[in-house]
Specification:
Length: 139
């Protein structure tokens, strides 16, 4: 059973998946920093100093001044600013993954085109069917 497990772990698919998860976690940290530290401040500056992380609606009636204060007090809040940040993160990650896949596809060697299929074409088969139908006597 241990040998089977070793064989399973050493298969290319499992190792590729493990590497992908590790790189994905590191990539998520980079993108989160990109969004939180670079993009959100620029968007906030354009929108007049708006900080998405402090955008929330107080549902508890305690009126905390910031999201951090709301979290600290355990107040119920509708944190739509965090959702906006998550959407921005997703769009950036999706765009970067798109660019990576596009560049990888460009770098991958082109597969040779399949040789043409030898034999009758669809038109030839249809002509044979037409000849067969015309040659049948009407009943």
């Amino acid at each position: 059973m241990i040998n089977e497990f070793k064989t399973f772990i050493m298969k290319g698919n499992v190792m590729d998946l493990a590497v992908g998860i590790i790189i994905g976690a590191a990539f998520t940290a980079i993108v989160s920093s990109l969004v939180g530290d670079l993009i959100n401040p620029i968007i906030g500056l354009i929108l007049g100093g708006v900080n998405f992380s402090d955008m929330f609606i107080d549902l508890s009636g305690t009126n905390p001044p910031t999201m951090a204060a709301a979290k600290e007090s355990g107040a119920a809040v509708f944190a739509y600013g965090a959702f906006i940040t998550a959407v921005i993160n997703f769009l950036i990650i999706a765009f970067v993954v798109f660019l990576l896949v596009k560049s990888m596809n460009r770098l991958m060697p082109k597969k040779p085109e399949a040789p043409p299929v030898l034999g009758p074409t669809e038109l030839d088969v249809l002509k044979e069917i037409l000849v067969a139908v015309k040659s049948r006597p009407l009943v």
